[in-house]
Write a structure and sequence with these properties.
Blueprint (H helix, E strand, L loop, with lengths): L1 E5 L5 H12 L3 E3 L5 E5 L5 H5 L6 E9 L8 H14 L3 H18 L2 H17 L6 H18 L8 H18 L13 E9 L7 H16 L2 E2 L6 E8 L2 E7 L20 H10 L7 E4 L6 H9 L4 E6 L2 H21 L9 E5 L14 E5 L9 H18 L6 E6 L2 H10 L4 E11 L2 E10 L12
Parallel strand pairs: 5-6, 5-7, 9-10, 9-12, 10-11, 12-13
Antiparallel strand pairs: 1-3, 1-4, 2-3, 4-8, 7-8, 13-15, 14-15
GO molecular function, one term: RNA binding
Family: Belongs to the methyltransferase superfamily.
Pfam family, one: UPF0020
């Protein structure tokens, strides 16, 4: 199966490395930022779902590297409709069916058990979708909307969710009057089409593409359109002349895996994983997040690098409480997985002041944190004092020569100025440009110099 995955924009290479390391598959990175593609045996689907750097997964029906869209809108849309009958649906639908059966075993939800026989019949009918992508679809929609917010390339990105909605509404009306199955018959599958489009040379909107492509899918498979309560989500990803047709495999984005108590600026787990991987943690490393918020980074770290010791802290008591609740949720989840071997997690949390950390000088190997952007928390003005103070203090606690820090911020101007003030203790090794909720941010990998940090910060 050829699997497509959406990943945090900017961390495509990190995701590709993880796929190579854990699945042994080479990845191709899409020109449309935030997507990777790789081929795996269908039996490897469980391992694919365990990847830490991917948000949403889909099986590729067909990829077109250089699709020539007609300049005339009606003709371009007619081509999309005609394409449905020519696509090789059979194998991707088998992969989708297998994916659903794996999830049924895992979740034991009644809904899917009802749809299971339907899937088989439908697959035999036309080699098409089988019954359980409803869960998969919701997650993929999240992904579509994230991409819409992330992609700076064109103003039409905002059309994407609308395309989904209106297409489904239109088809819903048409199909409500269609087949009603008796109790003894196979249930008709419900579906929707989500179109993600980027580029300024298309004569049609994502809304129109989703509507017309969806109409052809409905006619081809005799499925019933339903925008919210669907079994199958068909994806139409268009980026300039690159087009990929796929079927969603995830119900909700995999980045929601660790957090149950959210704060105003909770970081996605997939982005937290990318930041941690950037600093290459080694067994026995002490990793600190001095501004942990709801704890996304240390929780991801403790889950993926249990051989390290993770310390999280924040000056806001409410944030510390949320992080503690998230850690408790993780512990409960681990206990449910294997009650005979619940050992806890190598993670502690404390309330502290970022400018005066209760940690010994040179005692920490890695600092990874999401710094205040100055929007929802703090202010740009406060950042001019906070950033240099923060860099000095984490420079003090990090081991000279080997310590490293990975810091995320959208206030790049302030960060650059602060870094220039502490250039004697920190050297910038790498910058990864990322998109966080539509904001253009940067992840900085810093390396600690051998210079001794000042114990007293009298100039503050």
């Amino acid at each position: 199966a050829v699997i497509g995955a959406t990943v945090p924009t900017g961390f495509e290479q990190t995701a590709a490395e993880e796929v190579q390391e854990k699945l042994g598959s080479a990845c191709s990175i899409s020109r449309d930022r935030g997507k990777i593609y790789f081929a795996v045996p269908a039996r490897s689907l469980p391992q694919v779902h365990r990847l830490r750097s991917v948000d949403n997964l889909f099986v590729v029906v067909q990829e077109f590297k250089d699709y020539q869209f007609k300049e005339n809108k009606e003709q371009a849309l007619k081509d999309l409709e005609d394409l449905v009958k020519k696509l090789p649906w059979t194998n991707p639908l088998k992969v989708w069916e297998l994916n659903n059966s794996l999830k049924k075993k895992k979740t034991k939800r009644k809904k899917h058990n009802v749809q299971s026989p339907v899937s088989k019949e439908k697959l035999n009918d036309g080699g098409e979708e089988t019954g359980e992508d409803q869960k998969d679809t919701n997650g993929q929609e999240d992904c579509a909307q994230n991409i819409a917010g992330v992609e700076p390339s064109d103003s039409q990105a905002t059309e994407k969710p609308q395309g989904v909605a209106s297409q489904d509404r239109g088809e819903e009306e048409e199909e409500d009057n269609e087949q009603e199955t008796g109790e003894g018959e196979a249930k008709v599958l419900k579906f929707r089409v989500t179109c993600n489009r980027a580029g300024d040379k298309h004569s049609f909107t994502s809304n129109e593409a989703a509507r017309d492509f969806g109409g052809a899918v409905q006619e081809h498979f005799q499925w019933k359109a339903d925008m919210t309560n669907f079994d199958v989500e068909v994806l139409l990803n268009i980026h300039n002349n690159e087009m990929v047709v796929g079927i969603a495999l995830t119900e909700e984005s995999l980045h929601r895996r660790n957090i149950t108590h959210f704060g105003p600026t909770t970081l996605r787990s997939t982005l937290a994983y990318g930041m941690l991987r950037l600093c290459d943690p080694q067994p026995t490393d002490i990793i600190v997040d001095p501004m942990c918020g709801t704890g996304a980074i240390p929780i991801e770290g403790a889950s993926e690098w249990p051989g390290c010791y993770h310390i999280a802290g924040d000056n806001n008591p409410q944030a510390v409480k949320r992080a503690a609740n998230n850690i408790c949720s993780l512990l409960r989840k681990n206990e449910n997985k294997d009650s005979s071997n619940a050992l806890g997690v190598p993670l502690d949390i404390i309330q502290w002041d970022i400018c005066n950390l209760p940690l010994r000088t040179g005692s920490v190997d890695i600092v990874v944190t999401d710094m205040p952007f100055g929007k929802r928390i703090g202010s740009k003005k406060k950042n001019w004092d906070l950033y240099p103070a923060c860099l000095m203090e984490i420079g003090r606690i990090c081991t000279p020569g080997t310590g490293r820090a990975v810091l995320l911020t959208q206030d790049k101007k302030c960060f650059a100025k602060a870094l220039s003030r502490v250039g004697h203790i920190w050297r910038r090794a790498q910058t990864v440009w990322v998109n966080v909720g539509g904001l253009h941010a940067a992840v900085y990998l810093l390396r600690r110099t051998w210079e001794r940090a000042e114990e007293r910060r009298s100039f503050w």
